[in-house]
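> forwarded from #structure-qc
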């Protein structure tokens, strides 16, 4: 171990950004200067996407034009849908969406056009089509026909429609829409930094996003929302949840959905998501919804009391998606549907003032030596 190395790049300032700001001391997160909590409650996700890309919230006329543009960009090509239909059932849905985005890139003749307008157009195209591809992957796994995007529905509604053929109660859609806002952007996290690194070599935006999806898949990053739900299912009952947690801590298990590299005393996004999850549970009014809510509360209280480690956004988002009806392996692809906004904004920012990302390494291997011919080894 070298003292000069910042392992995991922890604490390293790697570049400037004007997209979002994380202030660990106050647990706050802002997108283009607006607190995420404020955006999540007071703006629809389309407005937040517009803000992330255009630096200002839209007027009504700008929002209408933006929604028109997003709707016009929907409709994945028949070839992309065919590729999704051919993928193996044992592949994780994150592998499917990673492959589908890569395929979109090779099919786009203008993939290497990185002018600001071309980058924006491709970003809207991915924003409009990724939900359809994720839903198509879900439907084919279930042996169900794919549902084409319905132009009369807005972005959050249409995801439910393409997955399940119907749109749930407004409180459920609002909870989902809030989760999309909270997941949209988070400065130089692993997947965003991956996307920026790829863009910095002047590769194309689809390659940058394909790499970002690969990074997000890992359980220490986006994959944690799925792991949280498996854990809640293991916790089994509200009465057994505390013992489950004490047991897991005694055996030094990593508890998914807790802890954060940047926030040490609570993730700013959690209270808003937890409120939305609670409201949804009340509206659903089922034993199952109440059960998971109670297990979540007990695990949260036990972890904070025993270890002083707080939940991150994946902790309330996992069970919320489960109760909405999404299969657990689809949780991280839903995160992709949202984070595509942040990733692409960072690619645009990187290319606006590009410097190849190329850090140094501290060599700890053998000292230089000579090759002995194979007969003498
Ligand atoms: N469960 C149990 N212990 C945890 C923990 C968790 N989820 N998160 C952190 N800790 C403990 C570590 O064991 C370590 O204890 P030690 O000093 O006694 O060894 C200490 O807290 C510091 O953790 P560390 O893993 O070094 O912090 P990090 O900044 O490298 O990791 C995460 C941050 C997010 C990778 C880590 O908290 C984690 O793995 N969480 C679970 C996965 C998750 O929810 N990811 C989503 C992130 S948004």
């Amino acid at each position: 171990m070298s003292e000069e190395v910042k392992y995991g790049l922890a604490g390293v300032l790697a570049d400037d950004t004007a997209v979002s700001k994380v202030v660990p001391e106050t647990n706050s997160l802002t997108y283009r200067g607006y607190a995420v909590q404020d955006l999540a409650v007071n703006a629809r996700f389309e407005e937040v996407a517009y803000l992330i890309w255009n630096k200002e919230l839209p007027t009504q006329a700008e929002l209408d034009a933006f929604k028109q543009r997003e709707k016009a960009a929907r409709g994945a090509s028949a070839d992309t849908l065919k590729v999704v239909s051919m993928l193996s059932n044992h592949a994780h849905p994150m592998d499917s969406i990673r492959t589908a985005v890569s395929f979109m890139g090779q099919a786009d003749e203008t993939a290497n056009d990185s002018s600001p307008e071309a980058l924006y157009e491709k970003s809207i195209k991915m924003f409009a089509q990724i939900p359809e591809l994720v839903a198509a992957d879900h439907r084919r796994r279930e042996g169900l026909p794919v549902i084409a995007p319905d132009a009369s529905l807005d972005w959050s509604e249409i995801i439910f429609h393409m997955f399940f053929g119907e749109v749930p109660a407004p409180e459920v859609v609002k909870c989902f829409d809030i989760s999309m806002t909270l997941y949209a952007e988070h400065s130089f996290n692993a997947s965003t930094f991956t996307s920026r690194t790829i863009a910095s070599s002047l590769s194309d935006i689809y390659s940058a996003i394909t790499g970002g999806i690969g990074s997000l898949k890992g359980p220490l990053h986006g994959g944690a929302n799925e792991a949280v739900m498996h854990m809640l299912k293991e916790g089994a009952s509200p009465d057994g949840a505390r013992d489950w947690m004490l047991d897991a801590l005694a055996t030094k298990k990593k508890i998914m959905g807790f802890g954060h590299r940047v926030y040490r005393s609570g993730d700013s996004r959690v209270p808003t998501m937890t409120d939305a999850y609670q409201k949804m549970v009340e509206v659903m009014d089922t034993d199952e919804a109440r059960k998971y809510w109670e297990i979540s509360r007990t695990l949260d209280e036990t972890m904070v009391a025993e270890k002083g480690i707080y939940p991150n956004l994946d902790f309330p988002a996992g069970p919320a998606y489960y109760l909405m009806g999404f299969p657990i392996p689809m949780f991280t692809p839903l995160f992709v549907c949202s984070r595509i906004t942040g990733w692409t904004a960072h690619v645009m920012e990187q290319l606006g003032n590009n410097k190849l990302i190329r850090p140094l390494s501290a060599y700890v291997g053998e000292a230089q030596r000579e090759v002995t011919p194979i007969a003498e080894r």
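QC bot note: Residues 116-141 form the longest helix (26 residues). The mean pLDDT is 95.
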